[in-house]
Amino acid sequence: MKEKVQALWAKKPLIISGPCSAETEEQMIETAKRLAATGKVNMLRAGIWKPRTRPGMFEGVGVKGLPWLAQAKKITGLPTTVEVATAKQVEDALSFDVDVLWVGARTTVNPFSVQEIADALKGVDIPVLVKNPINPDLELWLGGIERIQKAGVQKVGMIHRGFSSYGNTEFRNAPMWHLAIEMKRRNPDMLMICDPSHICGRRDILQAISQEAINLDYDGLMIESHITPNEAWSDAKQQITPEVLAEMLNKIEWRKEDVNSEEYHAALEKLRQQINHLDDELMQIISQRMKVAEQIGAYKKENNITILQTNRWNEILEKAFNKANTLGLSKEFMTKYYDAVHMESITHQNKIMEK
Ligand code: PEP
Ligand code: MN
To answer: Which 3 state secondary structure label does DSSP give 114?
Structure first.
């Protein structure tokens, strides 16, 4: 089984599926059998210990679920993975031959907990997947990975499951793709998979989010599945049957990172040159804009005027949004762009004022 798991690390896509929580032996085995029958899943997941937001919610079946998972592996030949949050859970999972461990989002936020897991893994050769922390903090995610690596674990991977925010949004956990992209940039050789189930929190957008991850060259997906999703003891709204999962995976356009075609590379190279030129020009123009802002700063200083002029700023934004619309640029992007330009401009003006 060890070689089988090693091979999964090297060959895309890694598709992990199974229930949010193991509930009963029948549920676990039936889900596993039906997942295996799809021929598209290469690892089984199940939550044994569940970190729930409120006490009194179903907190997982505990150790008694581990033999069910071992049985599911025996029947299907699929390796297994569970979430661990304490040294004792690591020990229990290892004693039942779980093949891969994952660190949950609520654990990655806590360096004490991750260190406890790392210490329990010293000298143990088992792959570990580290979910992003619930808050959008890359350093914390990196720190979690480093702690596990320092324990001597060779195969570490990342799971992007989105970041929590307050209030009702389209997502249960906002994907904030740019953070995951930055993590991939910093760890180019590390496995990165997406967990659309916990990003979406609902079924209807699972497909779109999965496709988005594959478009971004992720190595695989972890998707929750259940034989009777609506009756699931946890995360009922986001789970799908193994058969629906298979349909979904069928519809995904699996993209490759590269192709052996001179024509494609030549065309891409030309367009990339254009992008490079445009980026260069943009930078020059932004630099000019800052120089003008500095001149304004000097006048404001002379006349003892505040840097921030709210009316003027609103006027600029309104104009920009109208124009952006006709240019095919989103309001969301323009907001971020103007925020960044405005802040940089204020920094330049502050420097002038301090002189
Ligand atoms: C889970 O995978 O069921 C889970 C609890 O996920 P997360 O740690 O992303 O909340
Ligand atoms: Mn879940």
So the answer is: helix
Which residue's CA is minimally distant from atom 1 of ligand 1?
Answer: 20
Pocket perturbation via mutation, ligand 1, pick of 83, 199, 239 by most ligand atoms within 8 A of CB: 83
pLDDT of residue 52: 82
Q: Same domain for 9 and 143?
A: yes
pTM equals 0.87
> What's the rounded mean pLDDT across residues 67-93?
98
Model pLDDT for residues 136-170, shown as the tens digit of each residue: 999 999 999 999 999 999 999 999 999 998 877 89
Asked if residue 256 is part of any domain, the answer here is no
| Number of domains into which the chain is organized | 2
Distance of CA 105 to the CA centre of its chain: 10
105 Cβ below 6 A of ligand 1: yes
DSSP 19-38: -SB---HHHHHHHHHHHHHH
Q: Is the CB of 222 under 6 A from ligand 1?
A: no
Q: Which pLDDT tens digit goes with each residue over 232-267?
A: 999 999 999 999 999 999 999 998 878 899 999 999
- 238 Cα: distance to centroid of ligand 2 (angstroms): 8
Last residue of a domain, one of 212, 229, 251: 251
214 and 135, same domain (yes or no)? yes
Q: How far apart are CA 245 and CA 224, in angstroms?
A: 9
- Name the pLDDT band for 53 (thresholds 50, 70, 90): confident
Whether 289 and 211 share a structural domain: no
Alpha helix positions (H), the chain: 2-10, 25-38, 66-76, 87-95, 105-108, 111-120, 138-150, 177-186, 196-200, 206-215, 242-251, 262-302, 310-327, 331-354
